[in-house]
Amino acid sequence: MKALCWHGANDVRVDNVPDPTIINPRDAIVKITSTAICGSDLHLYDGFIPTMQSGDIMGHEFMGEVVELGSQVKNLKKGDRVVIPFTISCGSCFFCNRDLWSLCDNSNPNAGLAEKMFGHSPAGLFGYSHLTGGYAGGQAEYARVPFADVGPLKIPDGLSDEQVLFLTDIFPTGYMAAENCDIQPGDTVAVWGCGPVGQFAIRSAFMLGADRVIAIDRVPERLQMAAAAKAEIINYEEMDAGEAVTEMTGGRGPDSCIDAVGMEAHGTGLDALYDKAKQAVRLESDRPTALRQVILACRKGGTVSIPGVYGGFVDKVPLGAAFNKGLTMKMRQTHVHRYLRPLLERVQKGEIDPSFVITHRMKLDEAPHAYEIFKQKKDNCIKVVLKP
């Protein structure tokens, strides 16, 4: 089959690789009908996530048709259309039983490696380095899905791939980011980063009752998409974002601030130059410019929500500000399984059509070019869907 494979920083190629096979009786094989490039895939593309190996198949946002089942998978049948959560979860461990799916104890075969990095291992993830299991991803024609009796969600007739594809990651991630804010009537939520996750966080904040949402970015088409959702926008290259949100909230600061940027944040200040230099020589793994800003901008007693991916160690984080302002900080890989059915119901009711975020539809063979335009923000690219 064809699959997009990682061969080094800024080097991805569509290769011919062996078809996946059933390894465990709880596996399924899915013929992929739609897959997408996620902003967190760029961290792999740029070479900032350790333990990637040449030939690893990328991608964790995918859906398709079941073509083969292990003997213990009784909830699916061949021909079912399914979306696949990017987090791989067993469904029966301490954490799965507490609805903490992205912390599954049994799905990462390289747990010992992850423990050295994080203290404890998170769940396995599709297409996201050997630190999280080394599983083949979904930017391919077929994929093996472990624990298929737990993860995949069957899609009812009448919904297109593009309406449900983002249930795999970015819609639940953006929704979780807003849910973490415990939004109350009259609240103002500020969202740093208007990429795909930020766009879903903006719309989810409104769905959950926010009175105002302020969106911060520098890319015009992203800001325009945020404005179309009734967000108030700030271009941080034209003004200081922290000062602007303080002024827009009468000096108090937003009730909640969302960091939808993560480990490769851009900025205009000296701290951004500092981070870029330290990251380049691997003295710092992540660039936390946005994280610093959300902590400093959030009102006293407010909430900082972090859906943006952080992979390692960051410097100069104003923990004193977070402590002295009494901030609540919430962060995690998304417990996708928790949100699948509730968000599918919102799509079915017409409360949101997640396909709004798609700007490019391309063939799998075009994936290397898609990564380039997505990274470089060329051709007004916000979200790419690939068709194997």
From TrEMBL:
Keyword Metal-binding in annotation:
yes
Q: Which domain of life is it from?
A: Bacteria
Q: Which UniProt keywords apply?
A: Metal-binding, Oxidoreductase, Zinc
A Pfam match is: ADH_zinc_N
Provide a Gene Ontology MF annotation, just one.
alcohol dehydrogenase (NAD+) activity
Q: Where is the Alcohol dehydrogenase-like N-terminal domain?
A: 25-153
Q: Which cofactor does it need?
A: Zn(2+)
Residue ranges occupied by any Alcohol dehydrogenase-like C-terminal domain in the UniProt entry: 196-273
> CDD domains under this entry?
FDH_like_1
Q: Does the keyword Zinc apply?
A: yes
EC number(s) from the headed UniProt entry: 1.1.1.1
Describe the family membership recorded for this protein in Swiss-Prot or TrEMBL: Belongs to the zinc-containing alcohol dehydrogenase family.
The protein in question is named Zinc-binding alcohol dehydrogenase
Q: Which organism is it from?
A: Microcoleus asticus IPMA8
